[in-house]
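User: Working on a comparison across species. This one is SDR family NAD(P)-dependent oxidoreductase from Sphingobium rhizovicinum. Can you predict its structure so I can line it up against the others?
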Amino acid sequence: MSRPENPRTLLITGGSQGLGAAIARAFHEAGYNVGISDIDGAAAHALALELDPSGETALGLTLDVRDEAAFEAARDALIARWGSIEALVNNAVVTIVRPVLEISPDEFDKVLAVNLRGTFIGCQVLGRYFKNKGHGRIVNIASLAGQNGGTATGAHYAASKGGIITLTKVFARDLAPFGITVNAIAPGPLDLPSVRALVPEDKLEGIVAGIPVRHLGSPDFVASTTVHLASPEAAFANGAIWDINGGLLMR
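Assistant: Here's the predicted structure for SDR family NAD(P)-dependent oxidoreductase from Sphingobium rhizovicinum:
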C-alpha cells in the first residue's frame, strides 16, 4: 500500500492486544504513523515490529495511563519521531467480573484509575496539545455496559464506562472551538479472546441469543469506525456516542 505524502499520526493506549491491536492495525493500514502504547511495553513493541519491521511507521511505547507525566512523555516521543500527532484513541482498560456486593473499595478504585482516570488524563494531555495545534481527533472507547449498567461485567467496569461517556461530552463541548472533536464508541459484546475468557461458554451462548442480530460484534468494524471518526473529514461528528451493539440498545 502506498502511504500518504504527509501521514497523520495516532497515539493509542492499551494497543498491544485485543480491540486495541485491531484499532492499531486499522490505522496503520489507513496510512497513519502509529504509536502503540501499553503498560506492557514489550507487547506494544512486538506489535509495532509486526506492523513495520523497519520501525519507520510504527512505534511501541510503555505507558501507564494513570500517570500524567508518562502520558506527556509518550506524546513527546511521537512528536519527536514524526513531528506531530493528529489523533488519540483512549482504549486502555481493566475488566474484572465480580458481583457488586463483593467488590472492594480498593478494587473499585483500581478499575476506575485505569479506565476513567486514564481517559481523563489522555483527553487533557492531548487536548492541550491539540488546542495549541488547532486540530485534533479524540476517540474514547466506552461500552454498552456504561449505558445499561452491564450484564456480564463488574459494576466498577460499567461505572467507568459510563463516566467515559460523560467525559466525552464535556471534552467535546469545551474543545470544539479549537478544531478538536471528541467522540466515543460504545461496543456491545465483541468476538474477542478476552470476552470468551471472561464469560463461560454456556452464559455466552445466552448472551448471543439475546442479541437481536444473533452474533458477537466484529472488532475490525469497531476499528474501522474509529479510523472514520479520527479522519479530517469527521469535523461535524462531535460529542457523539456511537452504538455498535447488534441492537441490544436502541435509542
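For your comparison, note: The mean pLDDT is 96.

User: Helpful, thanks.
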